[in-house]
Amino acid sequence: FKGGPVGITTIATAVGEEAGTLEEVYEPFLIQEGFLQRTPRGREVTLKAYRHLGIATSAGTAGDLFAGKD
Predict the structure, then answer these.
(1) 45 touches 27 (CB < 8 A)
(2) Among residues 7, 17, 46, 59, which one has the fewest Cβ atoms lying within 10 Å of its Cβ?
(3) In a domain, 2, yes or no
(4) Is residue 28 part of a domain?
């Protein structure tokens, strides 16, 4: 998905899980831990998640909702 926003149905298909299960079980934890954010365009992985997984990001991928805000 190249770091861009993705719909819950697309994620569910990719991981072989029901969309409802993702929304009720996995998503709240990932959001609370700061690894995932919900946007009007879909779900996006945060920079924190990329760092945690040791994956390099290029400019324009994986925005951080609170980056640069004091």
Answers:
(1) no
(2) 59
(3) no
(4) yes
Residue 59: per-residue pLDDT: 56
Q: Which residue has the higher pLDDT, 61 or 14?
A: 14
Long-range contacts of 5-13 (CB under 8 A, 24+ apart): 5/39, 5/41, 5/42, 5/43, 5/44, 6/42, 6/43, 6/44, 7/42, 7/43, 8/42, 8/43, 10/42, 11/43
pLDDT one-digit tens code per residue, 18-70: 999 999 999 999 999 999 999 999 999 999 999 999 998 865 555 555 554 44
Domain with residue 29: its CATH number is 1.10.10.10
34: in domain = yes
pLDDT recorded at residue 69: 45
- Count the domains in the chain: 1
